[in-house]
Amino acid sequence: MNYDHPQLLEKLAGEYVLGTMSARVRRRFAQILLESLPAQRAVAEWTTRLEPFSRSIPLVSPSRQVWRAIERRTRPAPVASSWSDNIRVRWSDWMKPALGFCFGIVVTFGLVQQAPQLIGLESHSSTLAASYVGLLTDATGAPAVAASSLRRGTVLSIKILKPLAIPAGQVAQLWALPVGGAPIPVGVIPASGKADIRLGAPAENIFAKVPKLAVSFEATPAAKVPSGDFVLSGHCIKIW
Amino acid sequence: MAATQLQKSEQLSRLLARVGQRDHAAFEQVYRLTSAHLYGVALRILNREDLAEEVLQEAYVNVWNQANSYAAGLATPMTWLISVVRNKALDWLRHNKIADESTRASTDDDDHAHDIADERADPAALFLQATEKSGIRHCMATLEAAQRQSLALAYYDGLSHAELAAHLQAPLGTVKAWVRRGLEKLKKCLDNAGAAAMGS
Questions:
Q1: Does A11 touch chain B (CB under 8 A)?
Q2: Do B130 and A186 touch (CB under 8 A)?
Q3: Is A176 left (phi over 0), alpha (psi -120 to 50) or beta?
């Protein structure tokens, strides 16, 4: 089936969002969705079109257990609450694993130094995996943001090299600037540190024809077009 | 009302951006603002409290892990959240093939003490109510009765093509055509209505 045909894609996207597809067809279309930007766009449009139909569904508060269960699965592991908690941990409880860990590091380090081929690192260490890399600079030309993703990866790793002065109430939006096309919103980046942006499709599908990346400050992460000037920009290159 | 909705949407956008940066307090706020709506959506499709709660839990864990992917900017935050829940619920239905069971609960012996099938509003009534609320009632007039009924049953009760055919006692091909043409007409009318609203 030719999923690139716009009319077919439109019909399938509508049925996917409405929910009438059989399990098999739904699974197949979900696979296509992972890789096809036009399919993602068609599904997003149908999702918006059918959303008003949810407005007549009565609101129902879920039981408190639901939030507790979600919290258990999402809250970052708590750090030890006080020094006294730390002191209570007996030396012997952690000395053994700690010593074992150190020994492991020493042995591994030695092994990598002496015989990298034994653990399959030799070839990996000499070539970089096929990736997309972007380096964005500010108005003064100083490197500000590094972005990288494996060629077929679905995560774009962001490292902020120079903290961004994001105005209060705004977000820093990263854009892909395709050749001869409108900017495509990629995701929101933090003011400092690192972040992973999950891509809706493998990097190759998004960045293959994108020579440049840019960042603008937006009032909402939902901005579909940049509202003002780009505060950062830079080249996006493929490495392979 | 439109202004309030816009404000709520902007508030959710800001919160989701913070969730993307692993801000758990923002995540809790998103849950407080949206869980009653999203649970209602899950409960409507699945018709069982335990399943709806399970799906709701999975959906929010997904939101926590993938809040960054929302920033694609293709939909409002609420639309995106609803789609996460609906997809989870539909996947569950398709995988477990219980759709038939949930739609005939009012006539069968009830295996599930907590089934609320008898209390559920008629899909056609919900469809009409939704179009009135959203100011798109005129779009319903463009649909034939069978097309309207098929879309309502699919959207609110999660029926597949095959289940619709059984429920409406019509050939599968006919039902598929009702759905396809119903969606086409709906798209035409909604897109025109959207364009008119943008122009006004």
A1: yes
A2: no
A3: beta
